[in-house]
Amino acid sequence: MAIRNVGVAGCGLMGGGIAQTCAQSGYETVVREVNQQLLDKGMARINEAWDMLAAKGKITRGQVDEYRARLHGTLDLADFADCDLVIEAVIENMEEKLRLFPALDHIVKPGALLLTNTSSLNVTQMGAVTKRPDKVCGLHQNRARMPLLSKQGHPGAFLIRWLGWGGQHIALRSCSYSHRSDELGYRTDG
After folding, report:
1. The pTM is what?
2. What region does 153 belong to: left with phi over 0, alpha with psi -120 to 50, or beta?
């Protein structure tokens, strides 16, 4: 399955950064927040970052326009229906995540992947409240610039999908999988 449309649940610092990166990487991106004030604040932060990058000559004004055209804010989870991948980046509270994952599971298409950006909560528990636990994974970037993917169950199918998506825009230096910790670690260039 090709990843073309990405959803991000949460537009705070982490979710906004994820949405910004997805839009910059060429994906149609929908970012959802729970109220208009939080959505406006998150979208403003993303737009300010792009304006700053353009002012420093890191990207062109044309690129800024392209990125903005690919990023769409919403208050409605139903707007994730066409997403191939949804990344959860809401408050670090298990009860909140356990409410969100079944809702996402009901809305997104059957083959879509559901990722969580949790840094400490149980990914297996989140997957267990869906009908697609084999497509629920963890994604978190630590301070060493080493993103971590957590996967419950057998890693093979997900690893192939992730590298098929991320490999287009993320240069991998090293990759390892630990069955004991249920995490896939890799380093990115840059």
Report:
1. 0.78
2. left
Side-chain-side CA neighbours of residue 91 (13 Å): 8
The reply to whether 180 falls in a domain is no
Give me the CATH number covering residue 30.
Answer: 3.40.50.720
Helix (H) / strand (E) element for 127: namely: helix 123-128
Contact 134, 118 (CB under 8 A): no
Q: In degrees, to the nearest 5, what angle opens at C-alpha 100 toward C-alphas 95 and 103?
A: 135
Sheet holding 136-141, edge to edge: 71-74, 28-32, 5-9, 85-88, 113-116, 136-141, 147-151, 183-188, 172-178
Whether 183 is covered by a domain: the verdict is no
Give the pLDDT band of residue 140 (cuts 50, 70, 90): low
Q: Are 10 and 32 within 8 A, CB to CB?
A: yes
Task: Give the pLDDT confidence of 43-86 residue by residue, as tens digits.
Answer: 999 999 999 999 999 999 999 999 999 999 999 999 999 999 99
Q: pLDDT tens digit string along 42-52?
A: 999 999 999 99
